[in-house]
Every structure is written in structure tokens, then in C-alpha cells.
Amino acid sequence: MFKTLCTWGYRIALTTLVAYAVYCYTIGGWDSVFHNIAYYIPAVALFLMFSGQADLLEKIRKGGEVNIKAQAIDFTHWFLLLFMQVGRWMMGGFTLWAFILMAVLLAIIGWQVGVGIGRQWYPSVGEKRGGIAMLVASAILGLVAGAVRHADPSTFGWGWMLETTTAIIATGIVVWVITNHIKTIAKKASDYPRSFFLKGVSNNVLEIWVLIHLLNLSYTGGVFEAWASNAGFAFNIIVGNAIYFVFYGLWEIHRTRQARRAVRQV
Fold first, then answer.
1. Which spans are transmembrane here (predicted)?
2. Which domain holds residue 190?
């Protein structure tokens, strides 16, 4: 039921985005389409994330072999990004829909971890303490980075440095998540649904659209200024996309090899 709800959620979100794009074209042509829908793409991308994570949750609930530790680490990653939103809110730059949608995504990932702990992953005392410490550190870093960046939007200022540092840390956490997943996928890839990867890839492609939109808005100061002012987001999107495509490719390779091995053993 929940998986179906999330599937219809992203379909409705995409349909609404396409309808809005048609409307924008009628009033301002392709330039209007490109820039106006960019403001809503992050929300649609999160609906894709909901559905992909719901597909993975369904596999976990049915006893599929998924790396729960990786999902616990991913929870920390989104916890950091959520508290960046809270930091902006503290300085008057709060976006309610972004906070709500990220909170929903965190809830889904937390649900996965809750189902998997005690069934597939038995965290040690050290891992539990480390997890709590990571959550506290993520909350503090996110709050400070979000608040300072909103207060100081200048390029190469304190806000820029904190935002860029946070983006690099967030990307590093994603690498940690993926390396843990690969350990499980190398043994058994079939319990990871392809839809989980394809929706993740689609989400990343949409975020590239947003990056190009931001670079275009910042282009008045020149190419260097455009890239420099969006360095953190650009790093996160470009490197994150490359990493995720490798992740998906490795899953396809392991799944194919394991399927062929199973056929030979029959």
C-alpha cells in the first residue's frame, strides 16, 4: 500500500511538472520553461526519492538482503541536509515544503533501518555510540552552515566556505553509503530492486537541470563567478551523479554475473 502510494505520488508530481512546463511555454517559450520549472524540480526529485526508497523498504520488509548499516549512514546524510534547512529558517530563509519533504524522506529511511535492525544488522555498542555522535555532529554542522550561508551569501565568505565544506562532507557520506551497499551487492544483488537505482538516476538528472539554472542566474558576474558562487552545490551534483552512475553500473554487473552463475549451477 505504501509503495503504491509513493509510486502514484511521483507520477502525479511528474505529470504536474509537465503540465506546468506546457503552461510556461505558452506564456514565455522555452526560456520560461527552463527557468520556471527549475524552482519545482527539487520537490519532484524528492517524490522520486520517496518511491525509490519505498521500493527498497518493500524488499527489506519481505526479508530481502539489503545493507541496513548503509541505510543508517544515509539517514545521517539526509539528517545533515535537513538541519541545513533548519539553519536557514533560524535566519528567516526557511522553505516549508523543503523541510516537510526531507522529513518524509528521513522517515522512510528510518523505517527501513527500524525494520532491518535485529533482522539483518546487529549494531555493536560502538556503532550505536558512533551513530549518535554522527547525528549530533550533523545537526550542529547543518544548523551552522545553513544559518551562516543565508546570512552571508557572498562568494568566498564564511557562508560559502561552510556550505562548500558541508557539500564535500555530504558527498563523502554518500560514498560511505555506497561502499557499504556494494559489499552486500557483491554477494547478492537480486534483492535490490532496479527501480531503486533508476529513480535515483532520474532524481540526479533532474538536479543537473537545477544546477544549470543556478549557473545561468549567476552568469552576470562571468563564468568563474557563476561556478564559484555555486561551488558546493555543483560539487555535490557533479561528483554525486558520477558516483551514483558507478553504483548503478556495479549493481548491473554483479546482478548479471550472479544470474549467469546461478544458471550454470542448475
1. 12-30, 36-54, 97-118, 130-148, 160-179, 231-251
2. 2-257
